[in-house]
Write a structure and sequence with these properties.
Strand 8 and strand 9 form a beta hairpin. Helix 1 runs antiparallel to helix 2. With 198 residues, this protein is α+β, with helices and mostly antiparallel strands. The longest helix is centred in the first third of the chain and has 21 residues. It contains three helices and ten strands, in the order H-H-H-E-E-E-E-E-E-E-E-E-E. It starts with a helix and ends in an 18-residue tail after the last strand. A four-stranded antiparallel beta sheet has the order 2-1-5-6, with no helix packed on it. A four-stranded antiparallel beta sheet has the order 3-10-7-4, with no helix packed on it. Helix content is 23%, strand content 33%.
């Protein structure tokens, strides 16, 4: 595709230089050809590691200060529950489809947090946010079945027709609390590795 565009642009520029075709668009085409297909190397900049580290540390300090003072605003999180991802905030009710063991009234902690954000910042996990940084608590408020769904199959001219009705188990969760409890970029020390044989 790129070779076709290049060929068309060069033909247009050749025609415009010969004054065979007069068109206002041809005045723009030579600049487009040089813009998209120039041989000038891409400029690069040398990043100062010290300056980059200062900026990075300043951002982390700003986030930690907002969290410690409680000025981060409303927090949202993306959690992984029962094979799916949900974007949640405090007070949300979300539905998990399919069989899930917790019963109504159980209070659970959602530990697989992929992302946490507020008004001014977003903490993205790789793939999960560091352990102990975020606490997400929820309560199972209802276990029920979905509305009746229909599975209809038919083969034309074969006298084959089947109809099945089914309902999917559903679990409804209410998010009680989302809070950032640790400090960003200060994971807790790992203990218990002294007796481990690698």
């Amino acid at each position: 595709m790129a070779s076709v565009v290049r060929r068309v642009l060069t033909n247009f520029t050749r025609l415009s230089s010969c004054n065979q075709v007069k068109s206002p668009i041809l005045a723009v085409l030579p600049s487009l050809a040089t813009k998209f297909y120039s041989n000038v190397p891409t400029p690069y900049e040398i990043v100062d590691a010290q300056e980059d580290r200062k900026t990075y540390q300043g951002t982390i300090d700003n986030v930690n200060r907002q969290v410690s003072e409680g000025k981060q605003g409303r927090i949202f999180a993306v959690v992984h529950v029962a094979g799916k991802q949900f974007k949640i905030t405090e007070g949300d009710v979300f539905v998990i489809e399919g069989y899930w063991p917790p019963d109504a009234g159980d209070r659970i902690s959602l530990d697989k947090v992929l992302l946490v954000g507020a008004n001014d910042f977003t903490l993205i996990g790789r793939p999960l946010v560091q352990k102990g940084l975020v606490r997400v608590e929820a309560t199972v408020i209802e276990k029920t079945l979905s509305h009746t769904k229909t599975h209809f199959r038919k083969k034309r001219r074969k006298q084959y027709m089947r109809i099945n009705f089914y309902r999917i188990p559903q679990t409804m969760l209410r998010v009680n609390r989302i809070e950032i409890v640790g400090e960003v970029n200060h994971p807790p020390d790992v203990t218990g590795l002294e007796t481990r044989i690698f």
